[in-house]
Records
---
Amino acid sequence: MKTNHLFLLAIALISLLFTAYVIIAIISIAENPVWETVQTHLTTLPLALAVMCYLAKMADDIIREAKTSAGK
């Protein structure tokens, strides 16, 4: 049961990060010309994806550790 909560928390954090990224992109489009915004977000997208992948890896490690601890 604890593992499920950790997994849901990890998914929620990843979703929140992605949602924040999209909201920032929408606000940027409203304030700047579209092409400048696209260029900016194309350069920051790899960083955002790397952070999301890192969070997913951390969540996976936490889940594995919880399963290992539950098995002992």
---
Amino acid sequence: MKKTLSTILLSSLTLSAAANTIVPETSRDGKTLNNSAIAVSTQQRTFAGAMIEDTEDTSGLAAFGAYSFKNYSAEGVVDFGDGYNSINAKGGMKVSDDLAIGLRIDFNSFDSDAKDMAIEFAASTKWKEFIVGGSVTYNSQDLVFVDGSYLSATAGIGQVNKKMTWEAGMTYALSSDDLGRDDRLNLFGGLTMIVDQIEYDADISVSSTDGLNIFSDNIISLTGDAEILVQDRYYVTPGVMWDIVDYDFEFDNLAVSGDFGYRKDKIDATVGADFFLGGDLNLKVNAVYFF
């Protein structure tokens, strides 16, 4: 369940699909990062990479990677850009053949002196190809003029298979009077399916709250892409993302993307572009080495 569009652009949107939250990433590129400690706790891969992105508003350089050894696994990102710094670390341990636990720590800071932090505690159990997992996250935000914290809980189920991997779940975030936010419910689902030389990835997220700074909003986010192999070492990946936001008035955000990549001898490198129909253009380059 790849995230077709870039981290920088997605972070600027109201909501992005929660890919790879329950099951670990299984895309052929092997470098797409997971979204939670639930997924990282059951993954087995080791790689290191770097990414450069340039958007209409900012640019950034990120180093990222994953490491697995016996029953332990870890994944991390360090992202430095114009106006922000971000550190994300996730780790997991298999306690037994059918039980895993995980921890995630996120920290983001901005030139405006705003910052936020998240600490997630996760656990999952596995039965044959199926994974059932859940987590509790402490979220803290300092938005310069207001600051506060709230708890959120995630639960879901998924299946890992060589031909098709899927997941479905929900996240419920509690209200915070200090931050002026009400309870929020987010339902999510994702699918990765391989048919011959094409890998299809799709994600959906539906989020709703009845009171955010006295307004109500409902958000639907859809993403999808198709990675097409060419001569076993090259690939092209067209994709699309669509956010529909109902925030006392309705508007949407549509973007298309295109990637070209090379995959051979433990190296996977990609160049691509994301184009928002509102006019914004994002350029990106990334490369990883698998150990």
---
Amino acid sequence: MKSIIYITFILSIVTANITITHPNKNSIWVIGAQETVKWELENNFTDLGEVDVLLATDDPRSEGITLALGVPLIAKETTIKVPNFMPSGSGYVLKLVDREEKPWPSENFSLSTTKAVEADSVSIDIEESTNKNAKSNSTQSDNIIPSNDEILNGDYDGRSIENDKQEKSNLNNRDAKNSSSALPKMNRIINSKQAFLIISTVVFICSTF
């Protein structure tokens, strides 16, 4: 009995506890792409043997698909390819199986046909796009030439059609007033010329006698 307890104690010391850090619950792997598996070791040994890398579902009956064989534990990471035939979805688990055939599972993660985009990147892109559009709209508004439809709708230069009509009427009245005030002056000029001609004629007649 003591021998069994001693052997179990020795095995627990030699065997390292493995914690898979990637993939994790936030990971979305792309089907058919190269992905990196990373893990941490609780016990610091120089020779921890090798592990096999399996991809399975969170179903306890799922044996999984082997992605890599004989990966040194001391490496703490390896690159694998996600099989093209895997369906997209959530509830996938990566397993590292040690030399004693003990599986060390990861957190549940997802598979997708497209690469996931970080939320921060999306917000930055949206903000930059919004700023560019606002700047573009501002530049365009400065260079707008009103169309006939805008003029007819009363949107030209922020004035209504009624205001335009009133201004036009005022302009016509001003022109008419200027024209009427010029008539007496023209009449005076014409009368002066007529008087001059009459006087010149009289002088000419008198000079002939």
